[in-house]
Write a structure and sequence with these properties.
By secondary structure, this protein is an alpha/beta fold. The protein is built from 15 helices and twelve strands. The structure holds ligand 9MR. This is Beta-xylanase.
């Protein structure tokens, strides 16, 4: 591990000081945390997840339930100090028709975060998926498409300058074998679209952290090797990349290899921050106690692995309740992937992170 003090470390030191102040306040108000039950007994509530570590503890959030579900808002505000817009900052959400922007969902999430003292992760500037039809089927020339991409990045990064801590600049650019994924960007602009995207984002916000983000890169494998080589190359060229996001969409049936923590460490050694950006752990449904125990163990391994790496600055889950999760819609027969059940009761996975 590097002995130099990076900005992530300094930033975390301030967070530690803030955390100490918060714990002092907490100690003074312990009485408030002792919740009387219906029977008149008293139950100690564990501290929220966000108070267990100096890293950001985040969740993906959807604007729909944020607007309509008070219990969703309460758990999100209590447990997490970072939020990521699950869909609301994607291109099809913010510019469904060319030149017609809709910022309502994204603004709602940023406002909630602001009111609740939470940091925001922006997701995502350049992706092959969830592109509006006008763009996906626009048949633009390379020159036009380059201008469209630059304008998109500049517009959204400028809009949220000062409100967003980190952006997923490019998302899922690799295939499993480590080759670059086919997309309108690669086809029309060639591989340099990646470096350009980082440069344009940096021009629009000099201090936001800029990330590459992907799934199935948690372990050492062909895809994470390709990501590593790309990050090394971008750094060598002076391209402004600050971090690598590991989505970490896991399934109990596939597990996580022992290379997880060494993988985070090798990226950190390149001089970038690393972050767990979209963790969930799906099980074959219906679940049972053994499956939930296996799920809890995987959550804990990811939590411990991140906390063991000084430059792992964020632990974010892709939704916190089984009431709202992308998993069953994408993997029929699988689900229950979150820390809280559909009624917002803490599951064994939550208790593994936060035994109280
Ligand atoms: O959770 C998101 C889901 O609601 C959307 O329908 C889906 C569209 O592709 O995207 C999901 O989020 C993805 C994220 O943006 C990128 N990494 C994988 C996530 C799960 O598919």
């Amino acid at each position: 591990m590097s002995s130099s003090i990076g900005t992530g470390t300094l930033h975390r030191r301030w967070r530690r000081i803030a955390g100490l102040l918060a714990s002092t306040l907490l100690a003074a108000t312990t009485a408030i945390l002792v919740v009387p039950t219906a029977q008149g007994m008293e139950t100690d509530q564990p501290p929220p997840l966000k108070e267990l570590t100096d890293r950001y503890v985040g969740s993906a959030v959807a604007a729909g339930p944020l607007a309509s579900e008070a219990d969703y808002r309460a758990t999100l505000g209590r447990e997490f100090d970072s939020v990521t817009a699950e869909n609301e900052m994607k291109w099809s959400s913010v510019e469904p028709n060319r030149g017609q922007y809709n910022w309502s969902g994204a603004d709602q999430i940023v406002e909630f975060a602001d009111q609740n003292g939470q940091s925001v992760r922006g997701h995502t500037l350049v992706w092959h998926s969830q592109l509006p039809n006008w763009l996906q089927n626009g048949d633009f020339s390379a020159e036009e498409l380059r201008g469209i991409l630059q304008n998109h990045i500049t517009t959204i990064v400028t809009r949220y300058r000062g409100s967003i801590r980190a952006w997923d600049v490019v998302n899922e650019v690799f295939n499993e074998d480590g080759s670059l994924r086919d997309s309108i960007w690669l086809r029309q602009l060639g591989p340099d679209y990646i470096a350009d995207a980082f440069r344009w984002a940096r021009e629009a916000d000099p201090s936001v952290k800029l990330y590459i983000n992907d799934y199935n890169t948690e372990n050492i494998n062909a895809k994470s090797d390709a990501t590593y080589a790309l990050v090394q190359d971008l750094r060598a060229q002076g391209v402004p990349i600050d971090g690598v996001g590991f989505q970490t969409h896991l399934a109990t049936k596939y597990g996580l290899s022992d290379s997880f923590q060494p993988n985070l460490e090798r990226f950190a050694a390149l001089g970038v921050d690393v972050a767990i950006t979209e963790l969930d752990v799906r099980v074959d449904t219906p679940s049972d106690a053994a499956k939930l125990a296996a799920q809890a163990e995987l959550y804990k391994r990811v939590w411990d692995g991140c906390l063991a790496v000084d430059r792992c600055v964020e632990f974010t889950v892709w939704g916190f309740t089984d009431r709202h999760s992308w998993v069953p819609g994408t993997f029929p027969g699988e689900g229950e992937a979150c820390l809280f059940d559909a009624s917002l009761n803490a599951k064994p996975a939550y208790r593994a992170l936060n035994p109280g």
